[in-house]
Amino acid sequence: MEPIRMKNPIAELDGDEMTRIVWKQIKEELLLPFVELDTEYYDLGLENRERTRDQVTIDASEAIKRLGVGVKCATITPNAQRMEEYGLSKLWKSPNATIRSMLDGTVFRKPIIAPGISPLVSSWRKPITIARHAFGDIYKAAEYKAEEPGTAELVYKDRKGNILSASKIADLDSGDVIMGQFNTEDSIRSFAASCFNYALSAGEDLWFSAKDTISKIYDHRFRDIFEELYETRYKADFERLGINYRYMLIDSAAAGIMRSEGGFIWACKNYDGDVMSDLISAAFGSIAMMSSVLVSPDGKYEFEAAHGTITDLYYRYKNGETVSVNPTAMIFAWTGALAKRGELDDTPELTAFAKAIEKACMDTIGDGTVTGDLAPLCGRKAADTLTFLREVRKHIEIQAGGR
């Protein structure tokens, strides 16, 4: 193959631990031999975030907004243990949360269905896409641990300092904890619009779930906005395509999911979507078989894998062990970004190559070369990461030779 040229760059966001290592291997084995890869590189590894006082995350977010397409490796969101391990000056925020906030994006996560890998839920026949609201809630909450007995109140002041509302939360003892979280009208509306638009483009039903019977103001606001937008802007298009929108309590939706055949989009609030996307991906085979894309209201895209930095295998790798990491979701992050770049730049050969890589991944799994997470599901012996990647490359070359 002649190397494919790109008209415009992609924002490339490098990450941490084992995924950082596999990220480099994917580029060396599957991308650089076939594409004149053009990226603006941003190192979001924890050491560089510390060195730049997290300015690199802001710069990377701005690059995605400017270039229109980004691809991101998994990163560490530090806790107290990580702060000590890496010698951090502070607990830096989640890079994902920062990027999502700056792009005002919604995260869509969809299982990658591979031949020979059956979902653990026997009724599932089609993928279930999780639409995760990517702003606010617990991810931007204020927290406090009581140092002595007292009373916690929720107080709201206007910009002149006048108290407009004050209500008691609880009487607390020393060691008790409280949390205050928020969301915004604009962000909820962007979330709802993104979900409706995605459902129309996919031609699939949309479910939205929350718990408005308990959260009669906070969650109910989400429900009201979804219903308002559906009735005023999207209902006619949904009916024209023969697809449906429905609101469900999240516990009812979880039960309904287990009895469904799949093939729809499940929109969830931020924390719910975080949890349910991992559950759905594992039930379809592996968390490493879940694609993820952040879509902003103005059409900017950031592709990533849904999983984390694979810390346990990283330490084994550092000790000299051969490890079996499933790189499929990371590969699909790259193919998603390349396909979108090709679509936006009218470079069909780039989009076609991205689809060829995806097919090569499926052909590799279908032929029985699988990593450790999938091996027990199909009765195969686990291959190490590089063996898997090199088999994918062989299948790419077979496709190229057949054209």
Secondary structure: elements and pairs:
Blueprint: E1 4-5, E2 10-14, H1 17-31, E3 35-36, E4 39-43, H2 46-51, H3 55-67, E5 69-72, H4 80-86, H5 95-103, E6 106-111, E7 128-133, E8 142-145, E9 150-157, E10 163-172, E11 177-180, H6 185-202, E12 205-210, H7 218-241, E13 245-249, H8 250-259, E14 264-268, H9 270-283, E15 290-295, E16 301-305, H10 311-318, H11 328-345, H12 348-366, H13 375-378, H14 385-401
Parallel strand pairs: 1-3, 2-4, 2-5, 5-16, 7-14, 12-13, 12-14
Antiparallel strand pairs: 6-7, 6-15, 8-11, 9-10, 15-16
Helix pairs in contact: 1-14, 3-5, 6-7, 11-12, 12-14
What is the strand tally? 16
Strand order of the largest sheet: 4-2-5-16-15-6-7-14-12-13
Main sheet: strands, sense, barrel: 10 strands, mixed
Distance between the termini: 10 Å
What is the gyration radius calculated from CA atoms? 22 Å
Protein architecture, described:
With 403 residues, the protein is α/β, with parallel strands linked by helices. The chain contains 14 helices and 16 strands. The protein has helices spanning 17-31, 46-51, 55-67, 80-86, 95-103, 185-202, 218-241, 250-259, 270-283, 311-318, 328-345, 348-366, 375-378, 385-401, and strands at 4-5, 10-14, 35-36, 39-43, 69-72, 106-111, 128-133, 142-145, 150-157, 163-172, 177-180, 205-210, 245-249, 264-268, 290-295, 301-305. The strands form four sheets. It has a ten-stranded mixed sheet with strand order 4-2-5-16-15-6-7-14-12-13, sandwiched between helices. The protein has a two-stranded parallel sheet with strand order 1-3. Strands 8-11 form a two-stranded antiparallel sheet. The radius of gyration is 22 Å and the shape is globular. The mean pLDDT is 93.
